[in-house]
Amino acid sequence: MSQATFDDDELFDEAATDMRADVEESLEQAREALPEADAIWETDADNTLGVLNGLKTALDVGDAEDALRDAKKWYTMGKRADAFEDADDLEASIAAVEEVIADIEAAHDAAGDLAGTIPAIKSALEDDEEE
């Protein structure tokens, strides 16, 4: 069937299917870009600062934010165009990935704060011991 014979409804349905696929693909890319569970759980560090720095490094969301943004962009476009018959699953998946990214970023910030504080506490304790 040539493209000239497609009617608007068929083209719209095809575009809606493509948008759903784009959202799902972007969500998959976001999930794949998240850190692996073992990377944030296991450590080879010799001291607390090494653990914190390693954890901070492991808690990098990488390209997950960009992939989530793409998923949200295509989802929003499809929803506003009323292109999805049932988009509850997409909305729930986007919210779940968004929540995981927010949790990882919060933990990253906390590890960074601790990594910045621990050396000063160690120095203060050493100074106190000398007195």
Features:
single chain, about 130 residues, mainly alpha, 5 helices, rod-shaped
Number of strands: 0
Mean pLDDT score? 92
Please work out how many helical segments DSSP would assign.
5
What structural class do helix, strand and pairing data support?
mainly alpha
State the shape: rod-shaped
Helical coverage, percent range = over 70%
Radius of gyration: 23 Å
Low-confidence stretches: none
How would you summarize the topology of this molecule?
Layout: H1 8-33, H2 37-41, H3 48-58, H4 64-80, H5 88-130
Helix pairs in contact: 1-4, 1-5, 3-5, 4-5
Q: Brief description of this entry?
A:
The chain is mostly helical and 131 residues long. The protein has helices at 8-33, 37-41, 48-58, 64-80, 88-130. The chain has five helices and no strands.
Could you walk me through the main structural features you see in this protein, from its secondary elements to its overall organization?
The chain has five helices and no strands. The chain has 131 residues and is mostly helical. It has one domain (3-130). Helix 1 (8-33) packs antiparallel against helix 4 (64-80) and helix 4 runs antiparallel to helix 5.
